[in-house]
Amino acid sequence: MGIDYNTPSAWTPDGLITIGGSIAGFAGFVLLVLWLLSVWSGATRDWVQTPCTVIDSGVGFDPTEPGSTVGYYYVNVEYRYRFEGRDHEGHRYRMSKDYVGKEKANRIVARLPAGQQTVCHVHRIEQHRHRHRAVVARGLATVLHGGA
Fold it and tell me: Which of 122, 133, 125 is closest to 45 using CA atoms?
């Protein structure tokens, strides 16, 4: 079979523009995601480092389907801390429920046994005097599933 000159080619000017636009769009999306992650993690850098005590920790599991043994693992931690003259309890390891591998979740939990003294990072929500958020891990590395 010979060359079909009626079929558009990717190497024509229109085809190159389409390929170039797709690559530029994808690169722009990646840069936007990285920028948003850096802004999000940068916000937690200003949170107050506060001593806290781990009450309980364990590895959580969310199955992909009810009753399934296939799913996602995450760090489940509860801790007690004192902030602005009041005692509080928290349950966030990170800003959101991050799924990690089973081995990594077990390693993190092993470093946070009940009674362990550690540091929580606390942020008071300005609009509400007594509302705040606390996390154990913070920063861009943790947002990207790095070390804690």
Answer: 122
